[in-house]
Amino acid sequence: MGHTIGELADEFDVTPRAIRFYEERGLLSPSRQGTTRMYGPRDRARLKLVLRGKRLGFGLEEIREMLDLYTVEEGDAIQLRHCLEVGREKIAALERQKQDIEATLEELRGFEKQFVRLLEEKGPVD
C-alpha cells in the first residue's frame, strides 16, 4: 500500500504543491488509483533524499543525477565519478563558507570587545 500526497506532505512537513513540483520534475513517479496519486516506498525514499539534498544545498538537477544512481548499471563509473565530483565541489564550497563565517564572527567579536571597552570608559555596562 502506498501513501497519498497528503500523508507524504504531513510526514515530511512539505506542501502537496511541493510534492507535485518534484513529480513534474521527474523526481517522483506515483501510481494512480483513479484520480488519487499513490506514492510507494520508492517515492517516499526518493522524497526523503530530495529534501536532504535541498537541505545540503544541492540543486534539483544535481539531486536528479544522484537519484539516478539507484537505477544505473553497476558498471556506470562515469556517472558515479561525476556525482563524486559534484559532492566534493559542494564540500569545498561549504568549507569556504565556513571559513568566511568564522572570519566574520572573529571580526564581530573584536568589534564587540572594542564597544564594551568604550562603554566601560563611560560607565557600567550591562
UniProtKB/TrEMBL annotation:
Pfam families documented for this protein: MerR_1
Residue ranges constituting the HTH merR-type domain according to the UniProt record: 1-69
Coiled-coil ranges per UniProt: 84-121
Keywords recorded for this protein, A-Z: Coiled coil, DNA-binding, Plasmid
InterPro entries according to UniProt: DNA-bd_dom_put_sf (IPR009061), MerR-type_HTH_dom (IPR000551), MerR_fam (IPR047057)
GO terms of molecular function: DNA binding; DNA-binding transcription factor activity
PANTHER family to which the protein is assigned, alphabetical: HTH-TYPE TRANSCRIPTIONAL REGULATOR YFMP, REDOX-CYCLING DRUG-SENSING TRANSCRIPTIONAL ACTIVATOR SOXR
Protein name according to UniProt: MerR family DNA-binding transcriptional regulator
Organism per entry: Rubrobacter radiotolerans
